[in-house]
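Section: Multi-chain targets

For targets with more than one molecule, the full set of components is provided together so that the structure can be written out for the assembly as a whole rather than chain by chain. Components appear in the order listed by the source. The example entry contains two components.
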Amino acid sequence: MISPGTGNKDSLDRQRLVEDHFLGCLSDNQSAELETMLLDDQALRNDFRQAATLDSALRDIALRQAAESVLSQSPSRSSRRARFGRVAVMAGLVLAVVAIWLGINRLRYPTVAALTAVTGDVIARANTRILKARSGRRLWSGMEIEASGGHSSAVVVWKDGSRMKLAGNTRLSIAVLDGRKRVALSIGMIDCDIRKQPQGKPLIISTPQSRLEIIGTHFRTRVTSSQATTEVTQGQVRVERVSDGKSVMLTAREKITVNGKSELEKEIFYWSDRFRGGASGQRRISSAIFQQTEGFEIESRRSNSRFKGAERTRRNNSAVSGVLE
Amino acid sequence: MPEDRVFDERQFLRVFVKHEGSIRAYGRSLLPNWDAVEEAMQEASVIMWRKIGQLQSEDDFLPWAKVILRYEALKLRRKYARDRHVFSDNLIEMLAKEGLEQIESFEHRQKAMEECLQGLSMPHRELVLAPYVADNAVTEIAERSGRTVNSLYKLLGRLRLKLRRCVEERLGLSAMEGITT
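Its structure, encoded as tokens over all components, is:
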């Protein structure tokens, strides 16, 4: 029960904090302050639960009125009120049926991942159905995701927190069999950050040219019609050539290109997605991928300029300093 | 499909619809926003359906459903804890345990709330319901009325407190008139 009257200022302030919580208006500090009060005051906790119930009641009323305004044909207020009860019951039943249907659907097709950060033209396919690929869409075993066009991208987030970013013009399918994640990358590029996988159940990524086993790592793999290139920045990835079964183990800063023709040779690379100049006033260049050969050369995606590294400083495999030619 | 179920699909649907408001309100007391509540409700409803065989009578449904939702809420809480301050497990457990013991009727509170809303002016009613209509509904009202968003949220807080008092008074009156709660 709310403290009667407005004489008790402290009680009123507490009640307002409670209401602001349900309005989503509290700062982190205020939320922490409310928590301290709630821990010590059972009466306030009772008020808090009442406020939650009333918040829920207000929401139900707001949603019903929104549904009613869509369904109602008559501009007359009295005829709208006459239908209010029937619409409310119907809306409640529809919501319940949808909730049950969604629940049963989830049992049949358990969620294995979710799609996030969808930009551009991205679709998801389940059997022959094409589904809208919006951020938050749940994914189940057997689904295919395609990002069309160079401007499109999406991130697949698995239930264990592992992430795969699809670049543009990329198509892959996902599956979970016997607790093991499997990905078939048909074409395009994915950038992966994979949590440590269960013992004996590495994540498998198949491309037309190669098969990767991932235990827990950060890597990128790119597939074209003729070859698959894999670059590892952290952890280990075993890459197997599909044509003859030959394999290599890549560790951090190693890459390999599999094309069915040449020997499987590992190369060393440095991979930075943000390139910073050093203290001597060197220019900052962003989004650079570079490969060490005799010295090293860097191609900047953005500026189309080339420069040679004169001095290297590496922090967490992510920063290199150099001089622009 | 659960085996040896006392409840078939239709009965489950009926009892779920009957108590959905109470379950959802219980979830709201444990989770920081409605997105989290809806997510927990979805997961919990799947589990309820899967475990419906545990239930022997309809009277057990509400406390049983709340326990399932409490478990899902605690799991979800950890996801939101990364972004901002959320209540500790200790407080959530306290609210959850005390909420299980609460047996008030959600329907009666909702009916009282509808009656109390009628006591507000139309602009105040619109403002009170605005946060549930769309994310920027309060901002739109502020722009239309020439007031700041901050002042509207302060007014919103006062109106909600007023509604809470009104609902308590109506429920108190109803109890006095012999209507069970």
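The longest helix of chain B spans residues 149-176.
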